[in-house]
Structures are given as C-alpha cells and as structure tokens.
C-alpha cells in the first residue's frame, strides 16, 4: 500500500466554499507538492465532502490514478428531523452500503484504504471481517484499517480478519500524547504499522495563549526553531511527528496551500533526539523520569 | 460446554429462607423456563448455599442430569472468631480441597464449570493449571474459567494451561461499563468466549431515583420500552445485554420466579443498533464521539 | 542466566564515600552473604559509580568471575554547563557506545545483563534489537532485559528481538503496588520471568510516621512480625517480596552490610498466604474484594 508521507484531510472541504474548479485546482496543487493521499469519511461535512470531491473526479477522471483515497465508515450522524441519535454501525450491511455510497459520491470504482472510524462497543469483528473480505474480493477497497482503536480493539478485529490491518488513524500531536500513554505508539511500531495522525496541530491550540500547556509548548518550539533556523511553528510540529521512528503520517486539515507547504517543508528537517525530547517534555509539563 | 442462555444465580439462596421442598420447586420451575444453569460459589451464604442446593439433589438425584452447575473457588472469607482475614487462596491444595467440598455439599460427583473467583495478586498460574488438569482428569470438573479477570490476567493463566478457559464472569450492566472501558468485551469477542454477567440489573440501582445516572438510564429505558412495547424495565436491560454480539450470559440473582420470567422474556426481543446505543449513551452520560 | 536471589544495588556507591579498599571489602563481604549480583547503570553517581566499582576489579581481577554485573543504558543526564536536558537515547549508536564506556569503567570485558533503563517514547525496537544482537555476538553482553517497561512496551521490543528479554526491573514494594495494578506481575509470571525489584523498602518511607499509608503498613508489619518472631521490619518486607511466586529479585540499595543481612535473612522466612495478604491489604488500604 502506498500513502504519501503527508496526507491532505478533506473533513472541512464543505466549509472552504470552493467551486468544483477551485477544488480541482487545490487537488492539483496538492499533488504537485507530493501530497497524493486524500483523507475522507462518509460523514464529513454532514455526508457532503465525498460528493464535493467526487465532482472533480467526475469532470477530470484522469486525476484518479494520481491519488490515493482514504475513507471511513461506521459512524451514523444524528438527524434532528428524524430524531435519529448519534451512534455507530459496523454491521456488514452498513459497511457495504456505506462503501457503495462513497464510491458513488467520489465518482470512483475503488477506495485505496477503508477505515472503521471509531471502535464500536457493539461491534462484531467477524461481521467486519466478512464485509472487508467481500469488499476486497470485489475490488471495491484495496486496503483496510481502523481509527481511534486501542491495542486490544485492534487485536480483536485482526484476530478475525484474514487481511492485515494496515494502519490505525489516531490523534497525535504535542498537545495529545494519549497514544504514547496507552502504548499504541509502541504497539504499532512493533507491528511495523504507520499510524496516520489526525489533528497534528491540535486544531489551532498551538497559538492559544490562554492555555498554559500551549504557552509552554510554543515557548519550547520557538527555542528549538531558533536552533534549527525554522520560522514556522507548524513546520516544526510536523517535523516532530515525522521524525518519530514509528513513521507517523500526519493529516493536514487546512484548505490553504501555505499550510500544507508548511507541512511539506518538515520533510527536510532532522531533529536531534534532544530536540525531540525538549518538545515532548514541554508537552508533558515535566522532564522524563 | 453447554450453559443456558440465562443463568440462575444462587448467591442469595440462604436469604430466600426456602425449605428444601421450596428450593426443589424453584429449581424445577426454573428448568421449565429453560434456565438450566445454576451459578454457585463455595463462599455464597457464608459457605452454606451449595449445601442448601445439594439437599435438593440428594433428595431428587434425577435433577442432576437436567442442569449445569457452575461454582467458584479462591476466596477465603474472614472469620471473626478465628480472626481470619479476608484473602485469596488459589494454591493447588486449596483449589482441590475446595472442589471436594463443593462436590460433597452439592451432592454431585461433577461440576460443569469451575471459576477462579477473583484475580489473586499472589497467584501462580502454573499451580492453578496443575489443579485444573487434575480435576479434569479425575472427571470432577468438566470446564474451567475465571471471574473478574483482566485481559492480561486471563492470558497469564491461559498461557500455562493446556485446557481452554471458557469464560470470564464479569459485572456488565448499563450501570457498569467497566469491561467496555478495559477492553474485556472486545477481547472476549475476539476469542469467541461468552462472558457471564453478574449483577445485570446492578442490584436494584435501576430504580434508585436519588442517583442521577439511574434516573438518566431509566428515562431512556422507558423511551425505548415504549418504542418496543415492553413494560418491564428488567426485561429491557436483559435484552440490552442479550442483544450484544459478544454473547453475554446474564445471571439472574433473584429468588422470585417473576423476575426470572422477566429475564427470559428478553430472549425474544430484538433491539435496533440505535436503541442499543440510546441506552449505552444514557449510561455513559454523553454521546459516543 | 544466573542472578543471586538478592542483588546489591550500586546506585549510591559514590555517596558512601568508600576508598577503593573499602569498596573491595564491601564487595567481598557481600559475596560472602551469597549476594553475588551487583546492579549498576551508566548514569549512577552522575556517571561515576561504574568507575568506582571498576577500580576494585582493576586491583583485584579475580573477583570478576565470582560476581554478575547488571548495568543499564538509555538515559542521558542533564548538564547545566552544556545546557543539555534530561532525555533518553536508545539509538544503536548510543547503546553500543554506552556499553563500551561501561566495560571500560568497570574494568571488565563483559556485562552479564544489560537493561534499557526506561521505556523511550522515541525508541525504535529494531535498532535496540540490532544493538543487542551485536553486543551478544561480540560477547560484550551475555543477557538483555528492560526496566520500567509496561507489558506492551516489553512485547514491542521482544517482537523485534531474536533473543529472550530475561527481566523487567521495576519498582515493587508494599508502598508501590503499581505493577500489580498494571498487570506486569501477572504478565511476567506468565512468561516465567523474574522481575528485579528496585526500591523494595521504598527508600525509607517505611518509617515515615507522617504518612498514613506508612503507619498502616508498619502497624501490620509489626503484627505479622510478632506472629513470625521477626524483629526487623526490613527483613519482613524482603520476605513479603521473596515469597511471591513471580520470583522477585529485590535490590538492596544500602551501603551498610547490616541492611543487606536483613535482606538475606528474609530468604529463610515463609509467610502464609494470609500473612502475605495482611500486608497487601494494609498497603491497599482496604480488603481485597
């Protein structure tokens, strides 16, 4: 499976208010930056983002071979009119229907990578495995993974599945070390799996000066940035992620190309271990023991 | 191994103040309801419940083949007179003696399923395995499991044992989601093991209106009950457990047959995923992410 | 691999202000007590303790065959002058250099057991494995282990290593039950691995009467000590550790031989399960469930 080292997230595509032409331009410039993988979910933009992206593939089908499409299923969004609540559905039937919808919306005949969006307390790993196998055999989906799973949830699903789960998409950033604390980082490294990282910049918390942790991290980023001659703190946070041996694949969620360029610049930056730990310890709020 | 889909718990048999005749009637009516498995422990009723049950098997030995007996060992109860404290003993010697006592008290020559009652911080999995093998070879016990074990404790014991552990008896109810949170549910499903669930009704907390969580859960149960045309909230909680794909085997602890009937009625109820999550989210106190 | 049942810790060797002659005498008397394993780390005494110990081996090389040397690497200590921060380095290069330094300082050509001192959030298990294999092939290190690792961190490293990790050196004492709570004790027992225990006496907390937990534990130790005819509470704590079926190898950190004798005396003491639990429950602050 190939994913570009940095991934462009499409969660907010609807909010960017792009015309189809603008979306196409954005995608082409993204590809020019070497970022060829696009991260979707059925539910993004209240079930609209896949469709907005698909309009581009419809008008310019030759783009399909140049990109990799990741999408997700398993969450059902609430609906005030029908009084539907927010819940999960990882039944075989729902997964198959969700993928068919995604293919239709995206104007493509295959998904590169399909993820179960959230660990479902009602999930039946055998059913998920059946759905995955069927999607694999039909060629509708090439690779499979999960998102936000713990180690044990990952293992429970993998134990029923005759295909390797290829990633766990989790939140990783200096603002969120939970997957260091719950050992997911070590587990994934032990399995040679690259985690995809959502919210690598913690959604703007980086510059929230009302927050002690943010101030602490930003102060340290500036120090390390000075040592390395890096002005963009975005870039440095991406470098912090990209330097980790687990092989983090960060997802840039912005619709502004400058932001994505900041991420791409991080590919050329090498932190020393000491620099990496300086940022880690600022995030922890104390030295390692 | 066969266990009935719902199990009758005998922890409070002493408190029911039944005559042997009344106990026999209770057992026979329980069997008539399709509930053929009875859950004991050496210590229930301060070491008396197995004996009270055994009186029935003594007077009516033909009952033995119609039922499955689960019992447990490993806890030593405190004793004020001898100043003995409350502790655990999972030594080979204690397990063997405890089973011999249980057989004598129950007036039977075999236990269907023996569980280690609690994870023992002083346990030696090799010793437990030796005891289990010996009990298996002698025919005194047919199957083995644990109760209240974490995933790692389960794996530590299983790694030393040449017989499969067949269950983990744990507390599961809308009032106690700890085994969702600690991943036991996912682990057991991954191993195709049915957890037995103790306190499926959380010991009456369901109707404790002084408790915010209870009120929240009960309000939601009533809503879902209305959708399904179910009046008994007991029944609905049992249905919530029985519908889960992990295959929960709930233990009804009441000595009143109407309560057991409420449980048995749940076998015919099918919740939608959305209904299951409505109750789960009421229990959580918030939506799933 | 052979380690003596009790290990002498050398973390504070510098603080003891021994002459080389005094250190030699201390070592020889320690050996006379049957304590032949000495626990070091590259960083102890701000990188000085291995050297102080090595002076003895230099002047009396015949001692080497009578003892086992454990040392550790992976922590980099801060340095005010160079403004170096406190961080971890488990790169192959650092591990190899650190062992070469240890060998030079200790005046020996082999380490019996090398441990990774702390789980490194930046670690690459494959690199550690490469370093370990190279050290094994060259004969510089005979056995390998870890310290302060969780179960998942242990498994991640083991999965990349073609040699068995032989121990996890962790803090265990009645004052610190964390490795019961995180299941490390059960995991290690399941793997037949003996944990080494640092701070078995919790660094003097035993006699800290300002601390409720200490008072609670000490009161119970005195009761159990009276039952067993043991005056030294140190001895009783060591016995509590040594009696556990996981096979705890406690590290005595004192430079006073009487303290080590207290530990050695514990080898002859047998606690009943009830006595062991009395101390465990005093440590918990409540009965087991």
From TrEMBL, chains A, B, C:
An example GO CC term for this entry is: cytosol
Family from the record: Belongs to the aldo/keto reductase family. Aldo/keto reductase 2 subfamily.
The protein's matches in Pfam families, at most eight in alphabetical order, are given as:
Aldo_ket_red (PF00248)
Q: Which domain of life is it from?
A: Bacteria
Alphabetical keyword list: NADP, Oxidoreductase
Annotated coiled-coil positions are none
* Residues of the NADP-dependent oxidoreductase domain: 5-281
InterPro entries the record matches:
AKR_Detox_Biosynth, NAD(P)_OxRdtase_dom_sf, NADP_OxRdtase_dom
**Which PANTHER family would you find in this protein's record?**
NADH-SPECIFIC METHYLGLYOXAL REDUCTASE-RELATED, OXIDOREDUCTASE YDHF
Q: What is this protein called?
A: Oxidoreductase
In alphabetical order, the GO MF annotations are: oxidoreductase activity
Under SUPFAM superfamilies, the record lists: NAD(P)-linked oxidoreductase
